[in-house]
Amino acid sequence: MWAFIPRLGGCLACGGVDVSVAGLRPAKRGLRAVSLPVWILLGALAGILAGLAFGERTGVLQPIGDAYAKMLQMAVYPYLICSLLGSLGRLTPKMAWRLLGSSWYVYHFSGRQPWQPSGSSPR
Fold first, then answer.
1. Is residue 3 over pLDDT 60?
2. Distance (Å, whole) CA 14 – CA 112
3. pLDDT tens for residues 99-123?
């Protein structure tokens, strides 16, 4: 089974899409057809089932799980911060004031300031 994967840089009459044989690739079959998010979910499910089935004996695998979680944090946190700062930077002053006006009471009435650690309380 062949799947058509368009490539840029083809003829102008074709709209810039390369429709030659080089643009055709064999379709993935079997285990290669499973996407990365599905593999991640299957791994998490296998880890949960192994923990339930084998209990404390799976504790030797904890350093591997911790390293995997730290690697995910290294990839996700910078992306999250950049996307938040980029989105806030694109706000108009009117939208920024609306956002502040709709969320200020969360910090005001929660009894703590956003810069205080969650364990400390105001005196």
1. no
2. 61
3. 888 888 876 777 666 566 666 555 5
**What sign does the CA torsion over 114, 118, 122, 123 have?**
negative
Q: How far apart are CA 84 and CA 80, in angstroms?
A: 6
**Domain ranges across the chain:** 2-32, 34-109
**pLDDT value, residue 45:** 95
Distance, in Å, from the CA atom of 114 to the CA atom of 56, rounded to the nearest integer, reads: 39
72-102 per-residue burial string, b: 16 or more CB within 10 A, e: under 16: eeeeeeeeeeeeeeeeeeeeeeeeeeeeeee
The CA-based angle 63-66-67, given to 5 degrees, is 85
Q: Whole-model pTM above 0.70?
A: no
With contact defined as beta carbons under 8 Å apart, do 17 and 10 qualify? Answer: yes
Q: Which two tokens stand for residue 96?
A: 């920024």
Q: How many helices (H) and strands (E) does the chain have?
A: 3, 4
The residues pairing with 8 across neighbouring beta strands, listed in sequence order, are: 17
